[in-house]
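Entry 14. Two folds queued back to back today. First construct below, sequence then structure tokens.
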Amino acid sequence: MELRQLRYFIAVAEELHFGRAAHRVHIAQPPFSQQIKSLEEEIGAKLLERNSRKVRLTEEGRYFYEQAVSILEQTDLAVSTVGRMAKGESGSVKVGFMEIAMDSLLPEAIRAFRHKHSDVSVLISQLGASAQLERIRSGELDVGFSTVFMHGMEGLASIRLFSKKHVLAVPDDHIFTRKKSLSLEEIAKEKLIMFPRAGQPDLHDSIMQAFSKRGLVPIISQEVSGLSGAAALISSGMGVAFLPDNSHVSRKGITLIPVIEEFPSMDIFMVWNKDSCSNTAKVFMERVADYFSVSKIIFNGTS
């Protein structure tokens, strides 16, 4: 059975006239009639009653007509959807992000993408950098927005979207609030709240190295995941922490002070699996890259 036979049958079932039905599907009547006969023989049931005056559907024909219409509608929908997916106009994109990544223009970029590509579902999960890279590599995520590592990036490609300088966040009643800037020597004497190394090992290590280059060992009092958690501990007087400058996290009870020395910044990258990337994900990433005015992405390799 071929799809064209279903289309022929639907035409005659709706026209109830072989001549008009054949004209409707742009085929001569003799081969049209032969196709309908072959369809009935293949099914093993008479679908049409015909005589010299009229054509009508049998009970089997009425049922088959309903099913044939449904089959063709589903087929047309599948063809259309797959075509749109191939162009990146339909489907879904599974996105991972670190909290700091959303503390930027990224939400606006995603909103703009969804406005122009309403048929694409953007599924978002908040994850640490390590978890994102692992899931991108396994195919559980299409795209990640996170810091990247010096090592362990095999099979992944990335492009830097933006960078944020670190400042020291202290409670509003801290003595440091009287200062315009701080040295690492001063900071090393304070109880420091850090983000877990497991989530951002390279950034964690670079911060520690900034201290060690000056013969300093910071007093790490607590570790916390996420900017909001760090801000809550700082405002409670539990310690001080390095936070990205211009952060939109709640600053109630917090003062941000620049660091004098050259200090590691936080670079946020868009990351994907360079060997396995859907067309929908590619279109999503291209739109995000355009929004951040970064260089054109080269897929199947690192930009």
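Second construct, same run, same settings:
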Amino acid sequence: MSGARTRGRVVVGVDGSPGSRQALDWAVRETRLRGTVLHVVVAWQHPQSYAGNIWSLGLDPSFDVEVAGAAAGEAARLTREAVAEVTVTTTSAAVEGHPTRVLLDEVSPEDLLVVGSRGHGGFVGALIGSVSQHLVAHATCPVVVVPTRP
């Protein structure tokens, strides 16, 4: 082994859940060890109603801009909090779409993808969430699933 370091980014998916915050903390530490860039990703989706797509309820299309802005603000806020006391180069993105698809599209083979074991939604008490399971099965890069600590 040559000892050369990889230059891929550490990409972390966050949704504001305790598990994703722990994944973000882990990703910050790993980014420092690797001497690379931390890329924080928040995926957002249009809300759904029992009747289907929420647009069937007649909401103003400017709602899109508000949701995207809120997601981008959340990504920036979480990133600032996580790296407040360390020196790490960061980027962040708020992308419309299902978290699995967004994260798969955001990574390249040389990256390291980090996610929490459980996010918002799904079945409480499951050991690993459906997004984490899908990413482990389909990502083209290594995936770290950080267990949620109580």
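Quick look at the second one. The CA atoms of residues 56 and 133 lie 32 Å apart. The chain has one domain: 10-146.
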